[in-house]
Amino acid sequence: MRVGAYTEACNRAMETARRLGVYAIVRIQDKTERAVGVMNGQTDLLSIEELSGVGVQIFTFEGYSGFASSDMITLESLEHLVESATNLAKASAKYGAQPSREINQARPLIRDIDVPVPMGLDSISHDEEERLVREVCETAMKIDPRLAVRSFYRIANEQWRVVRSDGTDTMFSMPRSAAMNMITARDGGRAASANASLAGADASIIASSDGRSRLDKRTRKAALTALALLDAPRVAAGPYRVVIDYALAKGLAHEAFGHAAECDGMETSILGLNGKFRKGHRVASDIVNIVDGPVEGDYAYQPISANGIFRATVDIVCRGQLCCGLADIFSAERAGVPVTGAGRAESFRHVPVPRMTNIRITVENPLPIHKEFEDVEPEDVRDVLARAGLLLDDEPVLYLSGYKGGQVNPAKGDFVFNCSAIYELTHDDIRICQPAIFSGKVLSALGSIIAGIGEPMIDAMGTCGKSGQSVPSSGGGNMFLVIDGNDEITIGGV
Amino acid sequence: MSSVTEIAEALEKTLSQARGWRFVAKSTESVDIGVDDSKLGGAYSPPRSSSEISGNVFIVWEDGRCSRGRVDSKILDRLPRELDLWRSLAYRDDDAAYIWDLESPTDVKLFDPKVAGVVQGDPTPAFEGIGRIVEAARDSGSMVVDARVCCSAGETVVATSNGLWAKYSETGAWCYWYLDKTLGDSRYGRTTGTWQALDESVEWTARIVDAARIPASSNSGTMRVIMSPSVVDSFIGHYIAFNLSGENVAEGRSRYEVRQFRGGEPALRDDMQVALDTAVPMGPGSYPCTVEGVASGRADLIKDGRLVTPVLNLKYARRCNMQPTPLPSRGLSPGYAGMLLRTENMGAAESLLEECQDALLVCSVLGMHTQDPVSGNFSLAAPEAIVVKGGEMLGSVKAVISGNFFDALNSRQTRLSLDDQHPNPWMECLCHVEVG
Fold first, then answer.
1. Could you list the residue range(s) of the whole structural domain that residue A51 is in?
2. B306 and B294, same structural domain?
3. Closest-CA residue in chain A for B253?
4. pTM of this prediction?
5. SS3 letters for A416-458?
6. How many domains does chain A have?
7. pLDDT tens-digit profile of A325-342?
8. What ipTM does the predicted assembly reach?
């Protein structure tokens, strides 16, 4: 791996740390990323980014921590970074900084994980990538002349090396790719937008027939949705029984629940009690499970934490009960859970914090649906609900389609996320409505899940913005989840 | 590490083979001190320092195609190979493929030696600054404090093949506080004064957090909502900046079209102004010239409610057949980047609350980034909306506020008020409120 070239620099850092009497964690990042941007059929971005740098976090004997980073990875820069971080740590001690000694409990790890991908960075040329992305964009534009389309594709091979004073030396790669069409429909002074995306680990998302077919189908669906939204009414605000697709289920799992399970915030999290993770506490009915962990081939795959510890797959909720939190070496003991290797960071410049990789929320014994996700229409969702007796007689069930991001306050348990469109489903009619936020209390939402439809799909792509960083995230759930009406969960609108 | 000047000189020499070029190379050193859960430092918030060189290159080749590339601290080692790489990435973009004529950069002060001293020498003032913020929060009754003080110093060179060589030093200072995991505020500047004398501001945040602790009641329906400057700033960033982006206008992704700017069509109430000013002395979003070499300054984007110009870089200025404008600095909220919303006769911020008979005060919202910027529609959770009656804050309710931001800026019932702490105003307008 490319990060294997920095052994001498790492050794210099460790020697400097020994000389200064501090414990050091060296994090080297080396990323190669190619990107193509096409706007309405015209290429406006072709780029290759080669980024590398190093962050050094040190702990003094007393436990005071300091951090220094640079985009230079040389013997001299590593020596300088260890010294700078040590000076800052010692300065902070004078102002009453909080000591942290947990790193001394970590066990040494020596392991390299370089994940092979069939269609990695070198599999197709940049010219071919540009041709394919232009084709993706032009295909979308042909759907309707009222559409403006921005297509974007990127493929990256990111490698990390984490070296610690206890002898730990790990290297791992994180290949990923993403393609997205951002579609705006305009007509008669009105405008609406919707997105279609596909993520993975390599170029197959645009270069294989399967990937291309899925992306085109998603794009067509998003384009038709944006066009339909031009004349769509708003849904009346209030609590409803709702159906959410698996991308929204990822949003629910990530925003509404996963962040609260991250152990660095357990002292204030709604899933904590006196700083401890509330293991055994019931948060959902016994058909609901929530799992987080790295999945090979996934957009957010990370096999080893940024602290040099194996990333575990964690059952956060088992059959409705809290089971385990997402902890790194610094938060596990205080939260009363095992170390799960949850520390992740955006780049060498950032300090890792516990966060999710791929989180999925699944329901046991889901209702069957015999179509691919891309082929499912609102009528199909309604029919499954009707067959299961879940369609209501006196009010519509709202089907929320397409995830447009979300936000949560883990300390308060408030969450919000948005969709691309809402369909009002009744026995006699299906009506598309403007998107509106889905907001409420985390535990109310989880406790109201009453059914799943279809087998799990876990490739919904996102970006985790915790601590001001931007880290790839992903996940999903059953193709659809059904959440019963609850006064603490509101669909916004007027 | 190579200096920015060394890198710039090497780039100038190497790029001379091309028909036209421009680049920006920037060195940045920074120090960042944080408090999480009232604790200074620790494993997640250790005091931090960083040093880095960044920038970008734009090249127009003899055949008219163009390339973009990155600048970092290793660029000197890679330069011969890098030029071949950049050439291999060339693509045709006729609107983008030109270099701005030589124009004198604006003379604007951006450097505070005291901040540079904190970054490059003694970080004590930053530790003391965060200590004062935490003390002010505790004195105001806050139990859990998150806060940060950051400062940076660096040098930038912007150069073009048409003779521009603008080299300048700048400093940056930033702080924020977030109280009881409920509400926070931030300040951006270029001097150590950015994080000093904040007691009143922190106390004001604490007062709202106090009010948020008390459950109150309110009816759902259409009612007056008072939005804090940070909420208004996020609306401006999400709705106005998006729709005034030259790229979005030219490519049909904005609610506005080029012809509407040319015709000066009305977009907002006739006393509403939106301007971009990037030449304010010591302004956090100020600079001498854009990365493309266009001089910094002030541009009216919407004047007396009528569209004047989108924010245009060189490519989209050519595409729209209009003059380029200054560009807002990346990484800053719109107000701190210089994008300002104003009306005639703006009142004082204090009077908005004091004169308020019945309204909701909204100082934070969840979900702004999930909204559709083109339509202007919004539907946002405000988990701690403060009920204000007779000028008094009575307590909080959980609410969802919804409406259309552009309709609000067109309404005669909307009022803006400015304080001396924030670049953009408070806003009072009618919204639909759903109380949970």
1. 2-229
2. yes
3. A184
4. 0.92
5. EEEEEEEEEECCCCEEEECCCCEEEEHHHHHHCEEEEEEEEEE
6. 2
7. 999 999 999 999 999 999
8. 0.92
